[in-house]
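Structure first, sequence second, as always.
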């Protein structure tokens, strides 16, 4: 942590956040947050992502070299729920530099999927949540660069309209789902399931939120429910799914919830469930 503090302190001293001219730099914790920043910032913002592709957001430990992405940033945009975000934000607050913008404010958090009392951090898998996150980020970007506020607000309005249309399309598509049950290894689609009245069953045996006995019970319940689809996440070991005694004909769909093309991935989830 001392090395981290030293790096950020020297970075802030040598290169001030870009809130005056040129491209406004936004450092995002994860790719879905970067998606929002790019949609809102357009050609007036430079957006970088801290979490490397294929990394586990819940266990990621940022290295010194990667943290140089915060140099010159006006904003550090994050979910506000992932451990590595909190570590970075604490150091940034202590040493000055990029303004920390947590995007979970105003979202009704789901608890119990990731341990007793802990909020589910996967807020970006919900179109409705993403609209809240986009509004918070747009306000922060406009405040950081008043000269571009009208531009940012206009782009946010377009994004919000598109997300609203996407939500309505998903609602219509999934309202008549004959079987609203789906399987995942790790409980990463809780907010999507809540939005559209679906039932997520996590069958993974790993992690602090799972015991072997509890996972076996969940798997038995899943098989009895004749799940519509099993979602494999791109960063997970595919051999785990191969060991599950899934009902014959249960489709397996690979999704990447950390992809930079957030919209394509969330559409893939909805298409598999209709």
């Amino acid at each position: 942590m001392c090395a981290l503090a030293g790096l950020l302190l020297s970075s802030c001293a040598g290169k001030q956040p870009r809130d005056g001219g040129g491209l406004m730099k936004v450092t995002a914790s994860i790719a879905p947050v970067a998606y929002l920043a790019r949609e809102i910032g357009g050609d007036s913002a430079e957006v970088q992502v801290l979490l490397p592709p294929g990394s586990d957001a819940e266990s990621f430990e940022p290295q010194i070299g990667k943290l140089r992405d915060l140099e010159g940033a006006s904003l550090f945009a994050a979910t506000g729920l992932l451990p590595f975000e909190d570590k970075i934000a604490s150091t940034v607050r202590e040493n000055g530099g990029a303004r920390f913008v947590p995007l979970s404010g105003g979202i009704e958090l789901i608890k119990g999927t990731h341990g007793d009392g802990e909020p589910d951090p996967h807020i970006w898998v919900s179109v409705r949540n993403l609209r809240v996150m986009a509004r918070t980020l747009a306000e922060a970007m406009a405040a950081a660069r008043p000269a571009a506020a009208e531009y940012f607000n206009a782009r946010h309005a377009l994004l919000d309209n598109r997300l609203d249309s996407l939500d309505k399309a998903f609602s219509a598509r999934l309202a008549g789902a004959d079987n609203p049950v789906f399987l995942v290894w790790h409980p990463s689609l809780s907010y999507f399931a809540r939005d559209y009245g679906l039932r997520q069953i996590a069958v993974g045996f790993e992690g602090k939120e799972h015991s072997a006995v509890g996972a076996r019970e969940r798997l038995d319940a899943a098989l009895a429910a004749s799940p519509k689809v099993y979602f494999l996440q791109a960063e997970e070991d595919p051999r785990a799914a191969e060991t599950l005694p899934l009902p014959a004909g249960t489709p397996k769909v690979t999704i990447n919830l950390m992809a930079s093309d957030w919209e394509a991935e969330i559409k893939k989830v909805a298409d598999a469930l209709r």
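Margin note: DSSP finds nine helices and eight strands in the chain.
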